[in-house]
Amino acid sequence: xxxxxxxxxxxxxxxxxxPALAKDGEGRVSAGITAGxxxxxxxxxxxxxxxxxxxxNATFFSFGHDIHSDDIRYDADLKLRxxxxxxxxxxxxxxxxxxxxxxxNGNKAxxxxxxxxxxxxxxxxxxxxxxxxxxxxxxTDINKVAPALTLGYGGGLSKGVTFGIExxxxxxxxxxxxxxxxxxxxxxxxxxxxAALAADLEAERQSVNDDIDDYKVYPVLQxxxxxxx
Length: 229
Hints:
single chain; Porin; elongated; Outer membrane protein beta-barrel domain-containing protein
């Protein structure tokens, strides 16, 4: 809520002060590439005045990461997929800016769980053989729209090569794990030793959710190289 309010205040400031920009040698439009914790992708900007600017970008990246929960190791495939728009307020009319906006957040993680000892899983307090479980599949769910607030430097108004940097936060909310699935014998829960698996999988899901519950704010650190026209 506080993040959304902050973004709204920046938008209100932008709507309230935007004198024309028309001096020779000054550029309104910028285009470039941004890279950082949100991923890598194109960015476009439009400087309404010395004090107000607009930006939009889309960022993408993929990488692998191991996540450990109890005695299970999840080989996670993390995909960064997001895009959004920011309103930049330049309080001193130079390069320093305060920015707020919204991003469509398609970031997600898919993981394949395997027992650390290679022989058995302990899920929800019950021990299952590797043959009964096979591979344990998990996938995250996250809010699709998230507010963002950043501080940064976007360069002045002169035409030519520009360099930008910003740091802040994407307020994405809690990351949640969808219901877990298995590929082994117990994929058919009607088989005798597998009857309790559904409840145990839910307990394991809650355990993973507890492990990642603190990741409600995603850090933003982006570098941008572009050209102002």
